[in-house]
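Notebook, student rotation project (T.W.).
Task set for the rotation: take a protein with a known small-molecule partner, predict the structure of the complex, and write up what can be learned from the model alone. Partner molecule chosen: zinc ion. Sequence and SMILES entered below by T.W., checked by me.
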Amino acid sequence: MGFEGQRKAIRGVSGHKRTGNEAVFRAANERLKGRLAGLEENGTVPFICECSDADCLQVVELAMQAYEGVRAQGERRFVVLPGHNGAGDNVVGEGDGFVVVEKIAD
Ligand SMILES: [Zn+2]
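Predicted structure of the complex:
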């Protein structure tokens, strides 16, 4: 699309509704920015504990980077809350508020 085409596209969405749309998008971005700022502040993302207890829905908070690091280690590695590792789990690592286990039994 050339310059003239872009001008037409911009003109196409202009009109009395435009101010309202901008306000809506700006408000949405402000909310998003607030959430992202909060994420950066503590650096963690809530994940559900991956222990073998099917009823456990507790939250494990860890950095996205740490979680992805565990995922990259293979399908037998799981992130669980400290103490949620079972007899069939081999603890292979731990961080602030979580442990990484490797399933050694089914
Ligand atoms: Zn658990």
